[in-house]
Amino acid sequence: MMGAADSEIFQGCDDEQVRLMAEMCIEIDTDDNAIGSVSKKEAHLMPNINKGLLHRAFSVFLFNTEGKLLLQQRATEKITFPDCWTNTCCSHPLSRPEEILTKDQMGAKNAAVRKLDHELGITGVTTDQLEFLTRIQYMAPSDGMWGEHEIDYILFAQCDVEVHANENEVRAYKYVTQDELKDLFRQSETDESVKITPWFKLICETLLYKWWDNLACLQKVKDVETIHRF
């Protein structure tokens, strides 16, 4: 049940998105060691982020067999980064036994399978198909109240899937080539209605295209030990 403070924080927000803010994320230190549990709400409030609160996340990049990347546009109902274009699926392992696992990144992979289904209705991807590439740490505000501060597990997969998007999570989706993605970024520079999530922009500006060029042999570009700090 929400208290008075929560009612004020979530005034005008979508009921389902408010409900999801009660999920318990994994609080971590800067070396990605789990140190506790924290609600999604507390993990994303900028006053807590500014004090150093850090949580674990994942980002899935799903490519079809033609080598095109599946993008999603976050729903207008989302509390953080609404209407922004981003990679296929971005969310958080929860503080539960099957998602806090670190061996072979199984916690993040289990969470990714769950959220691919929840957000996009994709049921054809298994943990065995998800290739862990590396981790990144970044911090980014969404607005005056909300933001992100996370260590993000980068997961790649290549397979053909059926998409049945959850309209409360996903406003739109599309597959893009590298050139089409670059065009989207150029469009975002002149059209304020075209918004990109900060983590996706960061990944695209630093590492994505090298990974994409090696989609057939990801072992060449994997870096499982490093946490890239941005």
TrEMBL record:
<keyword id="KW-0460">Magnesium</keyword>
<feature type="domain" description="Nudix hydrolase">
    <location>
        <begin position="53"/>
        <end position="202"/>
    </location>
</feature>
<comment type="pathway">
    <text>Isoprenoid biosynthesis; dimethylallyl diphosphate biosynthesis; dimethylallyl diphosphate from isopentenyl diphosphate: step 1/1.</text>
</comment>
<keyword id="KW-0443">Lipid metabolism</keyword>
<dbReference type="InterPro" id="IPR011876">
    <property type="entry name" value="IsopentenylPP_isomerase_typ1"/>
</dbReference>
<keyword id="KW-0444">Lipid biosynthesis</keyword>
<keyword id="KW-0414">Isoprene biosynthesis</keyword>
<comment type="similarity">
    <text>Belongs to the IPP isomerase type 1 family.</text>
</comment>
<dbReference type="InterPro" id="IPR015797">
    <property type="entry name" value="NUDIX_hydrolase-like_dom_sf"/>
</dbReference>
<dbReference type="GO" id="GO:0046872">
    <property type="term" value="F:metal ion binding"/>
</dbReference>
<dbReference type="Pfam" id="PF00293">
    <property type="entry name" value="NUDIX"/>
</dbReference>
<keyword id="KW-0752">Steroid biosynthesis</keyword>
<dbReference type="GO" id="GO:0004452">
    <property type="term" value="F:isopentenyl-diphosphate delta-isomerase activity"/>
</dbReference>
<dbReference type="GO" id="GO:0009240">
    <property type="term" value="P:isopentenyl diphosphate biosynthetic process"/>
</dbReference>
<keyword id="KW-0413">Isomerase</keyword>
<keyword id="KW-0479">Metal-binding</keyword>
<dbReference type="InterPro" id="IPR000086">
    <property type="entry name" value="NUDIX_hydrolase_dom"/>
</dbReference>
<dbReference type="GO" id="GO:0050992">
    <property type="term" value="P:dimethylallyl diphosphate biosynthetic process"/>
</dbReference>
<dbReference type="GO" id="GO:0005737">
    <property type="term" value="C:cytoplasm"/>
</dbReference>
<protein>
    <recommendedName>
        <fullName>isopentenyl-diphosphate Delta-isomerase</fullName>
        <ecNumber>5.3.3.2</ecNumber>
    </recommendedName>
</protein>
<dbReference type="GO" id="GO:0006694">
    <property type="term" value="P:steroid biosynthetic process"/>
</dbReference>
